[in-house]
Amino acid sequence: MQIKTVNALLSLSEQILVSDVALLAEQGIKTIIVNRPDGEGADQVNVEEIMHAAKSVDIAVKYVPVTSGMVSDEQAIAFGAFLGEAEGKVHAYCRTGMRSATLWAIHRAQAGDDFASIAAILSAAGYDVSGLAGRLTDFKATETQIPAYDVVIVGAGAGGLAAAASIRKRDPRLTVAVIDPAENHYYQPGWTLVGAGIFKPEKTKRDMAKLIPFGVSWIKTAVALFEPEKNQLLLEGCRPVKYKQLVVAPGLKLDWSAIEGLGETLGKNGVTSNYRYDLAPYTWELVQGLKAGKAIFTQPPMPIKCAGAPQKVMYLSSDHWLSAGVLNKIDVEFCNTGPVLFGVKDYVPALMEYINKYGITLSFQQQLVKVDGPNKKAWFKQVGEGAPSELIEKSFDLLHVTPPQVAPDFIRVSPLAGAGGWVDVDQVTLQHKRFDNIWSLGDVMNAPNAKTAAAARMQAPVVAHNLINALNKGQSQSHYNGYGSCPLTVERGKIILAEFGYGGKLLPSFPRWLNDGTKPTRAAWFMKERLLPDIYWSLMLKGHEWMIKPSIKDTHW
């Protein structure tokens, strides 16, 4: 946590951790204002966790969640009111501190301060609010003052960085910018192995600055608003950026708040999730500690990232309990909102062998809606046609939660969104259906493929090829076949390597004699544990298209 002082009473920072709360108390902070909505990032601590930690050190917590780029005058009034009511020092935070700084700037302008003095104070604290000039004064930026790039990429996750590297390799003359405020980048497929005690969490985390491809500009802030009619977007603080071609790849949002009571009990009371960096080690702690009782693993409605992940943790946990000689004392249950174990039927027979081996109870069309951590109870809604309205109450000793997942807020409210809030693309070319110079890949777009890192790896060269050909008015296209991969870790040392495309068509990367993807193999485990992390860091994010070079078709744009 890097604290930035605005004045004697107010400080700002990026996202804080639970452990930071005690440090803030030592510095005399009496009120924390949270301006970041829950679920924006994979390493984000929820507001309920902050409230719980703050209560023990006598700090008040105020929640003014602001969607990136949608700072309202009413929110600034609420921010100012909390400042006025506070007894002592106040600390505010969001993802980077920029939304908090924007709220303070608008609040001070509402109080009559001139913009120049507001901007100077925040500049000294490390925040550039020059983009607010048009909102708080009569100043309007001219076209020549607006930064412009050939290609702008929103999001520096797996898809965004892979696309940036592939574009630069194809045409290093292009000016390319990646927009993302995150300090760190995570290899999220590794969190399954963290939750099984096989990887240390640090192995899945690297500094973002070291991963930005050579020659690509990194704009370290968040996107606030899309203006596709102007070939422009606005950053936090209302700063505009222009583009010729736009790639949208910010990932998705983990909607923890959709489950009542979950936020305040995550990371304690036996409630965990491998879908968050800081919680995956707690999963392994719980698995090791459980000798008898009830273990529940949940899966929410689709779509979710890595649809096999809710099962992977269950199989690896059961395998550990079997090896430890305690599985016969543990009741393992899989509560899946969907009607089937896995969406591609060819892999179900092998999975069912492990369901039977571990004695797992399958409860289909049951959706987790409420958790009471201290009392170790969970409630499930029954779904499907004719389902009864009564909730099912279940007790647990270990509860692994896969949260509901939605498109990020700033995408859902944008003109880029289609039905469901996802970026609306052609599923073959990955080009936006309404804006010809906009493309999307990864978890945020609405093509009916599995949301996996392997899918993004395959999509990146497709987007790179098609974007450059469109930019140069070329006459060829690359087509994406819906490829996705899900290495289903069914026991320590064996994996069912599910590889499939649109319509559930099997798309194996290797001949059957080398790896039969419909059966568990040690070769697939070796690839998951040893090869895939290096392929991710050293090939995918650097634009090396080993085994994924796109097929090219002549056409007319």
Strand proportion, as a percent range, falls in 15-25%
Shape: globular
Helical fraction equals 25-40%
How is the main sheet built? 7 strands, mixed
Mean of pLDDT: 94
Fourth-tier CATH superfamily name of the largest domain: FAD/NAD(P)-binding domain
CATH topology of the largest domain: FAD/NAD(P)-binding domain
- State the total count of DSSP E strands: 28
* Class from secondary-structure proportions: alpha/beta
Contiguous uncertain segments of 5+ residues: none
The CATH class designation of the largest domain is Alpha Beta
GO biological process, one term: sulfide oxidation, using sulfide:quinone oxidoreductase
Protein name: NAD(FAD)-dependent dehydrogenase
Organism: Reinekea forsetii
Pfam families: BLH_phosphatase, Pyr_redox_2
For the structure shown, list the relevant keywords:
557 residues, alpha/beta, Protein-Tyrosine Phosphatase, Chain A, FAD/NAD(P)-binding domain, five-stranded mixed β-sheet, 23% strand, globular
Topology, pairings included?
Blueprint: E1 4-5, E2 10-13, H1 18-26, E3 29-34, H2 47-55, E4 60-63, H3 73-85, E5 89-93, H4 98-110, H5 115-125, H6 133-136, E6 148-154, H7 158-170, E7 176-179, E8 184-186, H8 191-194, E9 205-207, E10 216-219, E11 223-227, E12 232-235, E13 239-248, E14 253-254, E15 271-272, H9 280-289, E16 293-299, H10 309-323, E17 330-336, H11 348-358, E18 361-364, E19 366-372, E20 377-382, E21 392-395, E22 398-400, E23 405-406, H12 409-412, E24 438-440, H13 453-471, E25 476-478, E26 484-491, E27 494-500, H14 522-539, E28 552-554
Parallel strand pairs: 2-5, 3-4, 3-5, 6-7, 6-13, 7-10, 13-24, 15-22, 16-17, 16-22, 17-18
Antiparallel strand pairs: 1-2, 8-9, 11-12, 12-13, 14-23, 19-20, 20-21, 25-28, 26-27
Helix pairs in contact: 1-2, 3-4, 4-5, 7-13
